[in-house]
C-alpha cells in the first residue's frame, strides 16, 4: 500500500497529444506595442519554462500598454505520487443527516456565530453559508433546526465577534474574508485568532474561515481548524464542524 | 424593439404608491438635521482642512456647535454671525474654534447673519453652476458618447496608480470611470483629507483625490476628444459631505441610494433618510447623475424571486430623487444581470426584467450592472456570461453599462481584464446596435408574461409597504432579506431635531421650489 502511495505519476499539460505540454498564456506589458515588445513577451514565456513559445495575438492597449496571447510547451512536469494536499477529512452529509448527528452527539443545538470581520464589507460569502436562503439551492445554516446560526454581517470588529461568541456560548466561529488586496485578510484572520487565544477560548471553539481566496491549507497555517473556498456550501461547513466537535469530545 | 404590453394604469398606481411612501418618510424626517448635513453645509460655504490630529475642521466646528447646544439652529447662521462679529473668514472661524480660542454664540444680529449666510451659499451655488456649464460645454464640444455608456472601475488603492489605470481605461474606450473607495470608508464619520496612497479594495474618497482624478480625466479627454465622466461614492455616514466635495470638484456621477446604507452598511435609517435628501439636492444642483444600488439586492436575495423588490425600490428611489430636485435624466436607477446561469430560459427572464425597467422609466438614465454573484474562476465562461449581459443591455437600450469582468470572482481586475471587457461590449453593441428596432416580443409570450408578473408583484409589494410605512417594511426584511430598525444601526447620535428657527440656506437656493417649512 505504501508503495502505491508513493508510486511515480508524472504529469504535464495536455493539449492534443499526451505530454505535449501545451499551455496558453495571456499577459500585458507596460510598454507600447512594437516588434520588440512582442519579442519581449516571447522571451518571457521562454523564461517561464515554455518551449517554442509563440505570440499568437498582440494588440495595443493605449499608449502605455500592450496585450499578448501566447502558446508554448511546458518544459516542466510534476510527480503526483508525491503530492500531499491538506484537506479536512470528513464525510459531507445532507442537511437531515447533519441535524440528526448534532442531536445525537450534542443533545442540544449547535451554536454558530458568523461574521465578515474588520474592514471587509462583503456579506456575500457569510450570507451564502448562513442565511436561510443559502446559495445555489443549498439552504444556509439558519435553516438547520439543530443549529442556532447568528450572522453578525459585515465589518464586524474581531473583539465584537468574540464577545458575541462568549455571550452566546458559541461552539463555532465562522469568518468570511472576501477582500484580499495587499493580503489584508491575513492580518484580519491572525488578529481574530490572537484574540481568541488571549481569551483562552481557542481550544473550545471550532474556528472556520471561508472566502473565494481561502484554502484549507492557508487556514491551517493561520491556526484555523478549517478553510473553505469556492464551491462549498452550508452542508460542507456543517458536516465538518459536527465531525470536528464529535472528534474533540470523543477524547 | 416593439414594447412589451404592460398595464399603464398599474404602472401609474405603483408610482402613486411610491410617491406617497417617499413623501411620508420625507414629512417624518424633515424635522431633523444631521451632523453630516451641517458639515456639508460648512464645506460648501468654504470650510476645509484638518487640525493637528488630522481631524477635519468641519467636524471640529460641528462638534463645537453640538457641544454648545447650537446645532439645532443650523451651523450656517451661527458661523456667519461669528464671521461678522470677529472680522474673520469662515476658514479662520473654523481654525480659531479648533484651537480653542473662540467659543461660538448665537449671533447678535440674527437677520444680518442670515443674510450673510445666504449670500455665501449663493456664491457657492454659483461656483457649482459654473462647473455645470464647463461640463456641458465639454460634452457639446466633443459630442455625447453613444449609450450604453461604458462604465469602468479603477481600484488600486493608490490615487496615483488609479490615475494611470483611469487614463488607460479612457484610451481603451471607457466613457465613465469610477474610483472605488477603500472598504470601510462608508462607516467613517469624517472625510479623510488630502491625496491618499493607501486603502483596501480602493483608496479614500477625498476632495484632493477628486481634484487629481478630475484633472487627469480632463487631460486624457482632451487628447482623445471625449468627455470622460468621473464617478465616486456618495454614500455612508458622510454622504452629504461627499456630495458637496463632488459638486465642488465637478464629478459627474455619484453612487447615491436612498436605502443602500441602511440595508447593507447598517447605517441608521433616520440618519440615511435625512442625509440622502440633502446629498441628492446637492447632486441635483451640480448636474450629477446619481446611481442607485438595487443591483445589490440581487447579490443577497435571488434575482428571479426578488425581481419585484428591485422595481419597487427603483420606484421609491425615483420619488426620493424628485423630492430632492433631480430630473429623470439624472436618475441612474440600478438593476443587474444576476440570474443563476443554470436556470432554464434565464436569459429570457433577464430580458424581461431589463425591458420592464426600461419601459417603466423611459426617461431615466438606467444603470445596468453585470453578473457578479454567479461568476466563477472559469474566466472563459465568465466572458460569455458578460457577453449575454451585453446583449440584454444593448437590446433594451440601457444608459450606463458597468462592464462585466471575466475575472470578477478572482481579483480586482487586471488591466487586460478591462481591455477584454471593453472589446466584448463594443463587439456586441456594434453588431447588435439596431437589433432592438427589428424584433418584437411575442404578445402573450413568456417574456411578456414574466414582465407582467413582476409588475404585478411590485404593485402588491408597494401596497404592503404603503400600509406599514417604509421603515416598518425595511424592518421586515423586504429588501435583500435584511432587516433594519428605525433606531438601530450606526450614526443615530448624529441625528439632531431642528429647533423652530433652524436655518440652512441651501434648500432655498438649490431646490426648484423650496419645500421646507
Give an overview of the whole structure.
- The complex is a heterodimer of chains A (251) and B (517).
- Chain A has 2 domains: 2-81, Defensin A-like (2-Layer Sandwich), CATH 3.30.30.60; 95-250, Cobalamin-binding domain (Rossmann fold, 3-Layer(aba) Sandwich), CATH 3.40.50.
- In chain A, helix 3 runs parallel beside helix 8 (234-250).
- The longest helix of chain A is centred in the C-terminal third of the chain and has 17 residues, at 234-250.
- Chain A has 8 helices and 10 strands.
- Helix content of chain A is 34%, strand content 23%.
- Chain B is of the alpha/beta class and 517 residues long.
- Chain B has a domain at 144-449: D-Lysine 5,6-aminomutase alpha subunit (TIM Barrel, Alpha-Beta Barrel).
- Chain B contains 20 helices and 11 strands.
- The mean pLDDT of chain B is 95.
- The chains are: A alpha/beta (251), B alpha/beta (517).
- At the A-B interface, strand 2 of A face helix 7 and helix 16 of B.
Amino acid at each position: 500500500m505504501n508503495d502505491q502511495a508513493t508510486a511515480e505519476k508524472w504529469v504535464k499539460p495536455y493539449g492534443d497529444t499526451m505530454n505535449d505540454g501545451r499551455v496558453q498564456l495571456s499577459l500585458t506589458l507596460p510598454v507600447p506595442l512594437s516588434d520588440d515588445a512582442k519579442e519581449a513577451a516571447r522571451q518571457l514565456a521562454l523564461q517561464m519554462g515554455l518551449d517554442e513559445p509563440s505570440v499568437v495575438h498582440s494588440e495595443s492597449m493605449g499608449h502605455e500598454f500592450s496585450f499578448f496571447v501566447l502558446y508554448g510547451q511546458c518544459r516542466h512536469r510534476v510527480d503526483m505520487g508525491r503530492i500531499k494536499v491538506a484537506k479536512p477529512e470528513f464525510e459531507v452529509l445532507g442537511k437531515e443527516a447533519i441535524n440528526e448527528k448534532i442531536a445525537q452527539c450534542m443533545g442540544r443545538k449547535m451554536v454558530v456565530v458568523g461574521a465578515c470581520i474588520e474592514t471587509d464589507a462583503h456579506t456575500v460569502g457569510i450570507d451564502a453559508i448562513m442565511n436561510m436562503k443559502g446559495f445555489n439551492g443549498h439552504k444556509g445554516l439558519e435553516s438547520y433546526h439543530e443549529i442556532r446560526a447568528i450572522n453578525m454581517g459585515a465589518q464586524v470588529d474581531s473583539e465584537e465577534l468574540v464577545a458575541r461568541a462568549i455571550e452566546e456560548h458559541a461552539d463555532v466561529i465562522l469568518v468570511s474574508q472576501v477582500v484580499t488586496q495587499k493580503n489584508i485578510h491575513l492580518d484580519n484572520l491572525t488578529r481574530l485568532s490572537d484574540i481568541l487565544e488571549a481569551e483562552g477560548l481557542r481550544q473550545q471553539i471550532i474556528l472556520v474561515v471561508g472566502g473565494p481566496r481561502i484554502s484549507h491549507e492557508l487556514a491551517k497555517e493561520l491556526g484555523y481548524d478549517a478553510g473553505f473556498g469556492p464551491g462549498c456550501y452550508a452542508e460542507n461547513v456543517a458536516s465538518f464542524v459536527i465531525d470536528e466537535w464529535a472528534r474533540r469530545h470523543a477524547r | 424593439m416593439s414594447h412589451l404590453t404592460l398595464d399603464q394604469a398599474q404602472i401609474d398606481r405603483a408610482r402613486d404608491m411610491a410617491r406617497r411612501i417617499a413623501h411620508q418618510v420625507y414629512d417624518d424626517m424633515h424635522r431633523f438635521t444631521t451632523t453630516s448635513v451641517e458639515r456639508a453645509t460648512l464645506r460648501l460655504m468654504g470650510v476645509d482642512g484638518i487640525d493637528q490630529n488630522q481631524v477635519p475642521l468641519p467636524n471640529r466646528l460641528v462638534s463645537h456647535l453640538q457641544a454648545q447646544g447650537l446645532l439645532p439652529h443650523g451651523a450656517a447662521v451661527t458661523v456667519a454671525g461669528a464671521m461678522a462679529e470677529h472680522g474673520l473668514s469662515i476658514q479662520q472661524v473654523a481654525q480659531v474654534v479648533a484651537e480653542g480660542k473662540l467659543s461660538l454664540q448665537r449671533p447678535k444680529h440674527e437677520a444680518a447673519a442670515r443674510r450673510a449666510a445666504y449670500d455665501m451659499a449663493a456664491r457657492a451655488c454659483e461656483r457649482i453652476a459654473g462647473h455645470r456649464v464647463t461640463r456641458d460645454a465639454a460634452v457639446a464640444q466633443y459630442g455625447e458618447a453613444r449609450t450604453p455608456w461604458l462604465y469602468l472601475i479603477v481600484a488600486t488603492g493608490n490615487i496615483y496608480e488609479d490615475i494611470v489605470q483611469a487614463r488607460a481605461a479612457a484610451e481603451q474606450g471607457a466613457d465613465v470611470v469610477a474610483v472605488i473607495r477603500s472598504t470601510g470608508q462608508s462607516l467613517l464619520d469624517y472625510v479623510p483629507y488630502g491625496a491618499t496612497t493607501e486603502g483596501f479594495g480602493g483608496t479614500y474618497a477625498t476632495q484632493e483625490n477628486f481634484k487629481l482624478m478630475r484633472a487627469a480625466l480632463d487631460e486624457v479627454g482632451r487628447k482623445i476628444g471625449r468627455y470622460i465622466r468621473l464617478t465616486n461614492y456618495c454614500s455612508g455616514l458622510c454622504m452629504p459631505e461627499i456630495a458637496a466635495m463632488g459638486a465642488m470638484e465637478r464629478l459627474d456621477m455619484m453612487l447615491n441610494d436612498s436605502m443602500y446604507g441602511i440595508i447593507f452598511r447598517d447605517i441608521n435609517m433616520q440618519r440615511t433618510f435625512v442625509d440622502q435628501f440633502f446629498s441628492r439636492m446637492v447632486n441635483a444642483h451640480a448636474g450629477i447623475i446619481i446611481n442607485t444600488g438595487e443591483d445589490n439586492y440581487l447579490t443577497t436575495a435571488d434575482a428571479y424571486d426578488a425581481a419585484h423588490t428591485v422595481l419597487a425600490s427603483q420606484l421609491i428611489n425615483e420619488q426620493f430623487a424628485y423630492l430632492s430636485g433631480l430630473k429623470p435624466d439624472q436618475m441612474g436607477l440600478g438593476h443587474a444581470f444576476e440570474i443563476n446561469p443554470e436556470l432554464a430560459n434565464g436569459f429570457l427572464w433577464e430580458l424581461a426584467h431589463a425591458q420592464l425597467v426600461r419601459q417603466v422609466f423611459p426617461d431615466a438614465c438606467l444603470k445596468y450592472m453585470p453578473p457578479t454573484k454567479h461568476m466563477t474562476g472559469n474566466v472563459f465562461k465568465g466572458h460569455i456570461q458578460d457577453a449575454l449581459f451585453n446583449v440584454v443591455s444593448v437590446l433594451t437600450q440601457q444608459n450606463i453599462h458597468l462592464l462585466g469582468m471575466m475575472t470578477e470572482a478572482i481579483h480586482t481586475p487586471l488591466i487586460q481584464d478591462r481591455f477584454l471587457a471593453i472589446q466584448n461590449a463594443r463587439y456586441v453593441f456594434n453588431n447588435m446596435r439596431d437589433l432592438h428596432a427589428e424584433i418584437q416580443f411575442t404578445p402573450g409570450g413568456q417574456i411578456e408574461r414574466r414582465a407582467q408578473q413582476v409588475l404585478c408583484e411590485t404593485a402588491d409589494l408597494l401596497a404592503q409597504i404603503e400600509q406599514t410605512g417604509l421603515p416598518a417594511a425595511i424592518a421586515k426584511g423586504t429588501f435583500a432579506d435584511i432587516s433594519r430598525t428605525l433606531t438601530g444601526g450606526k450614526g443615530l447620535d448624529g441625528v439632531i431635531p431642528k429647533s423652530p428657527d433652524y436655518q440652512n440656506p441651501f434648500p432655498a437656493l438649490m431646490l426648484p421650489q423650496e419645500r421646507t417649512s
